Amino acid sequence: MAEGDNRSTNLLAAETASLEEQLQGWGEVMLVADRVLRWEKAWFPPAIVGVVSLVFLIIYYLDPSVLSGVSCFVMFLCLADYLVPILAPRIFGSNKWTTEQQQRFHEICSNVVKTRRRAVGWWKRLFTLKEEKPKMYFVTMIISLAAVAWVGQQVHNLLLTCLIVTFLLLLPGLNQHGIISKYIGMAKREINKLLKQKEKKNE
């Protein structure tokens, strides 16, 4: 068991080091984005909502086709991938890179690797469920996809995408400030109350 844990830890460290090397040119930008997403200042959340809303309003106004939208998005990613490593050191100054910043950059890369591992783990569990309990897998997938299709039919796709992107960008700050855990705790307490009331009625 200990050998397996050590192997997993070593693999995590190797993946983190590899990711750090790949994203070294994005270090300064990632640190700024990290501060924004964790809401280090009170005006960061409304700024995130405002920027995302502005971007989607521009998309709504231009009304590009799917092919044009995807092409522009990929073109933007290519430009960012080329320009950011060149411009970031000039804007932020690589000589100001401190040990604390390097440690935070390492933590960010480690969190990204862990998140990627969780996603792969959920994907593998889904296929395990398909092999072990095909009926449950079938019913779960049909109900989930039908619910998503119904929501997509009721809400405009651009508005729905805007809400999803906004939520995902606010999620790190919600976790950082304990807002999600707070409401999950409240929901658990309410469910426990309902279960206790049901048990008393049955008695």
Automatic annotation (TrEMBL):
Residue ranges crossing the lipid bilayer per the database entry: 43-62, 68-88, 134-152, 158-180
Subcellular location: Membrane
Keyword Nucleotide-binding appears in the UniProt entry: no
Biological processes, Gene Ontology terms: cotranslational protein targeting to membrane
Cited Pfam families: RHD_RETREG1-3 (PF24456)
Domain RETREG1-3/ARL6IP-like N-terminal reticulon-homology, chain residue ranges per copy: 26-183
InterPro entries per record: ER_autophagy_membrane_reg, RETREG1-3-like_RHD
GO cellular component terms given for this protein: Sec61 translocon complex
Cross-referenced PANTHER family: ADP-RIBOSYLATION FACTOR-LIKE PROTEIN 6-INTERACTING PROTEIN 1, ADP-RIBOSYLATION-LIKE FACTOR 6-INTERACTING PROTEIN
CDD domains: Arl6IP1
Name under which the protein is recorded: ADP-ribosylation factor-like protein 6-interacting protein 1
Keyword field: Membrane, Transmembrane, Transmembrane helix
Topology within the bilayer: Multi-pass membrane protein
Species for this entry: Fukomys damarensis (Damaraland mole rat)
